[in-house]
């Protein structure tokens, strides 16, 4: 398909994404299903341009605003969305066949049509950010909202915050967790190689593989036969740090589609008992399909209204309760760049209240001597340390367990931050994760 037509489709989709609160990946799936005539190359261009524009949205807007001020013209909404794509393609992709004629043909404003050459020249020039605030500078150069940059700076310091923003703008690798119930890592690599897929071992997880190039792994025979699941290395490490023994009773209290549930089942060698519960039945339906494909036999799946539904029957029952809490998800921006523009400070406040409520409701389910694990895939103190430290005064029978030994066991340098485990994209190459291990003890 010609570039002009591809840009038209991409502009149409970007407008949908920018005006929706749904995740970009689901909107792309819907769009491609309704445009089946698009070939794989066309889809790749559209998807990469959408995600790239979302990653660089604020920088593109800043560059466009500066440019249109200089050429003394305003922007119609349609032209602005199109020029955001042009800004990304000029500034980040350096697309060579993006000519003044192509740009002019897609613009509606006659004044802008006349200035197509000037626009392309201006967007190709090095970006000059002239602001006094370090927060604003990082926000513009790395395309993050100021409030989010400020939170990162308060939490990690200015230098680390900027590195985090840079790393969150990188495209995450496709990482697989080998299902050791059906295969060894070497056998899985051989199976994938026979299908033309090359992989490399992950640096920390002993059962992780990174794909050498991006491909649709869900169409592979190795996937359909249950040899692997797609799972970020950080998520794999969380289950390895928890390290459930084969005889335990484990509750995955916010199981969702069950990525960690399946990893636990493999670690426990299909023994013991895993209870996977969630309030969303459609996610659990996906888990049921995945357990069948993976050959998992020790998981009980149950939809609940609230965790209190389990209180009477399962009080003091579980050796391990994992609260992989609903969160803002800011640690996964590499995979969901549009999240930068959907999450707000109010979102964080609301979700942190929900997190501490879930943690309170989970505590009675842990047996004496058992462990309550609190985990998130966010990078903010309000959803991490503050939740744990808000929980402990009301539960004197719990204490924080030092998890540094687990981090050392898997050679995860810098992951044990005091009493907590933190995985950071710029240090570990994983999504951002937080984990606290709380042990239940007799109150004296």
Ranges with pLDDT <50 over ≥5 residues?
none
Provide the structure class. Answer: alpha/beta
Strand elements, count: 13
Task: Give the C-level CATH assignment of the largest domain.
Answer: Alpha Beta
* Termini gap: 73 Å
Number of helices: 22
Written overview of the protein:
The chain is an alpha/beta fold. The chain folds into 4 domains: 3-128, N-utilizing Substance Protein B Homolog, Chain A, CATH 1.10.940; 134-169, no CATH class; 175-230, Alpha-Beta Plaits, CATH 3.30.70.1170; 233-440, Rossmann fold (3-Layer(aba) Sandwich). The protein has helices at residues 3-18, 24-33, 40-55, 57-70, 77-93, 100-106, 110-114, 116-124, 134-141, 146-156, 158-168, 185-194, 221-224, 233-242, 259-267, 281-294, 311-314, 339-342, 345-362, 385-391, 404-409, 425-428, and strands at 175-178, 199-201, 208-211, 228-230, 249-252, 273-278, 299-303, 318-324, 366-376, 398-401, 416-417, 420-423, 433-440. The strands form 2 sheets. Strands 5, 6, 7, 8, 9, 10, 11, 12 and 13 form a 9-stranded mixed sheet that branches. A 4-stranded antiparallel sheet has the order 2-3-1-4, with helices on one face. The chain is globular.
In short:
The chain has helices at residues 3-18, 24-33, 40-55, 57-70, 77-93, 100-106, 110-114, 116-124, 134-141, 146-156, 158-168, 185-194, 221-224, 233-242, 259-267, 281-294, 311-314, 339-342, 345-362, 385-391, 404-409, 425-428; strands at 175-178, 199-201, 208-211, 228-230, 249-252, 273-278, 299-303, 318-324, 366-376, 398-401, 416-417, 420-423, 433-440. With 444 residues, it is an alpha/beta fold. The protein has four domains: 3-128, NusB-like (N-utilizing Substance Protein B Homolog, Chain A, Orthogonal Bundle), CATH 1.10.940; 134-169, no CATH class; 175-230, Sun protein, domain 3 (Alpha-Beta Plaits); 233-440, Rossmann fold, CATH 3.40.50.
